[in-house]
Design a protein that fits this description.
469 residues, alpha+beta, Beta-Lactamase, Heat Shock Protein 90, 5-stranded antiparallel beta sheet, 5-stranded mixed beta sheet, 12 helices
Length: 469
């Protein structure tokens, strides 16, 4: 169902419900008001007849101690035929609530009479055949007798007026609905015109016409939506224009990715050279061979994993509890203190949620970059501390630093601040880009602070998984 049709349908339903409920309430309110008025008049009539009966009883010649039943019937008959209302219906009952006199047509049951007590008035609405009546009941004190007076007042006209009101209001509701549907049809068509124009523009863009723009025909929210859609179309067109360049850049990245694997290869070559160039005892030979095997396996797994992360970004990191002690011990073994560089470690032991292999790659790349940016004999600080937000890894060097305007660019693939220096140290401009991608999978990012000529501090946060046991 189209939106304009839904709008028309729901508007019709709301109008119908509103008119229906309001009409029912109005007609019923008028009916109840009229019925209450009739009930009041019926009670007033009963009170008048009661007073007239008591007065007539006082004027009866005193022959007996008590008012006789025949006299009661005579008084009731006179009351029935007196007055302007010739159709008056009444019934008189004795102390035992046995009927002494009843008008012709007074067919009401004795339920109301049974509920009537001395010195009280009561009434109810009853239906006799097709007619409606208000039945009243009260007590009459006449010459030491307690009698019961009941009356019937015909209120069928009130019910007929209610039925007529319902009929008139139903017809009026149907007429208002027809007029409302016609008016809302044109309003819905006008309101949904911008939506139809947007749909046409969407179809044309889906067919490849990215230069097409939707026409703006209003200044309301839909008009703003049209304008936003056109802005989105412009951004999409610009994005598509850049796709070919990005695809080519990705291919270049994949082609140059092998350069980033030099760190594990350096370890393999170094230990292999030790085994090749000198005779080592059995323990050192085993340690060297073990590092070659370990780094070779890591190189194999990391090649497959990182290619998927950087090229396709379809596989997420498998986060597990990792000991920071193991991570820093791994760095100690990879970067042993020597005369050309001083490594200072300061860290707290804890457990973090991470992919150990990927985080090792991040730390190695950051430490390797710090070494390249530092002069021989410089101090490099490797720290790890528990913070409120998580576990903070920090690597600080006192090397050449990074210009402020370059900091935002250094995580881009192949970007090098000092290309000549980077190339001389076998840099490919992929290390920090790779670190940024890995940390994204860990819901983290690189925090870089640097001052040109004074050094650089690079850190990142990992989610803490408790203290190390």
């Amino acid at each position: 169902m189209k939106f304009s049709q839904k709008l028309l349908l729901w508007t019709t339903i709301i109008i119908a419900l509103t008119l229906g409920f309001s009409g029912f309430y109005f007609v019923n309110y008028v009916f109840e008001t009229s019925l209450e008025r009739e009930a009041g008049q019926a009670l007033d009539e009963n009170s008048i007849l009661r007073f007239a009966f008591e007065t007539a009883a006082l004027n009866v010649p005193v022959k007996y101690d008590l008012l006789q039943d025949g006299t009661v019937e005579q008084i009731a008959s006179n009351l029935e035929s007196s007055g302007q209302d010739a159709g008056r219906l009444l019934r008189i009952s004795d102390e035992g609530k046995n009927v002494l006199y009843a008008s012709d047509g007074f067919e009401a049951d004795g339920e109301l009479l049974a509920q009537t007590e001395e010195d009280m008035y009561s009434y109810r609405v009853i239906q006799l055949g097709e007619r409606y009546y208000i039945q009243t009941s009260s007590t009459v004190n006449a010459l030491d007798r307690v009698l019961y007076l009941e009356t019937l007042r015909d209120v069928s006209q009130v019910f007929e007026e209610r039925n007529m009101g319902y009929t008139v209001y139903r017809r009026l509701t149907v007429l208002m609905l027809v007029l409302g549907i016609v008016i809302m049809y044109f309003i819905a068509s006008k309101l949904t015109q911008p939506i139809r124009l947007l749909m046409d523009a969407t179809k044309k863009m889906a067919e490849g016409d990215y230069s097409h723009r939707a026409q703006r025909v209003s200044n309301d929210e839909l008009g703003q939506l049209t304008q936003d859609f056109n802005h989105m179309a412009e951004a999409l067109e610009e994005t598509i224009d850049k796709l070919e360049d990005e695809v080519q850049a990705r291919e270049d990245f994949v082609g140059a990715f092998a350069h980033e694997l030099k760190t594990p290869l350096t370890s393999i070559i170094g230990y292999a050279d030790m085994l090749r160039s000198r005779k080592l005892d059995e323990e050192k030979s085993f340690v060297s061979a073990n590092y070659i095997y370990t780094e070779g396996k890591r190189l194999e797994s990391m090649s497959l994993r990182l290619l998927d992360i950087i090229v396709t970004k379809k596989e997420g990191a498998k986060l597990q509890k990792v000991s920071t002690e193991n991570l820093f011990e791994y760095l100690r073994n990879m970067f042993t203190p020597n005369e050309s560089m001083e490594f200072v470690y300061s860290y707290e032991q804890a457990m973090v949620l991470a992919d150990a292999s990927l985080i090792q790659t991040v730390l190695i790349n950051l430490l390797d970059n710090a070494c390249k940016a530092s002069e021989p004999g410089s101090r490099i600080e490797i720290e790890g501390h528990v913070k409120t937000e998580g576990y903070l890894f920090t690597i600080r060097d006192y090397g050449i630093g990074i210009p402020e305007e370059e900091i935002s660019k250094i995580t881009e693939a192949f970007y090098m601040v000092d290309k000549s220096r980077a190339r001389s140290k076998n840099g490919a401009g992929l290390g920090l880009a790779l670190c940024a991608e890995i940390l994204t999978l860990h819901n983290s990012k690189l925090e870089i602070e640097s001052t040109l000529g004074k050094g650089t501090t690079i850190g990142f946060l990992l989610q803490e998984a408790g203290k190390e046991e």
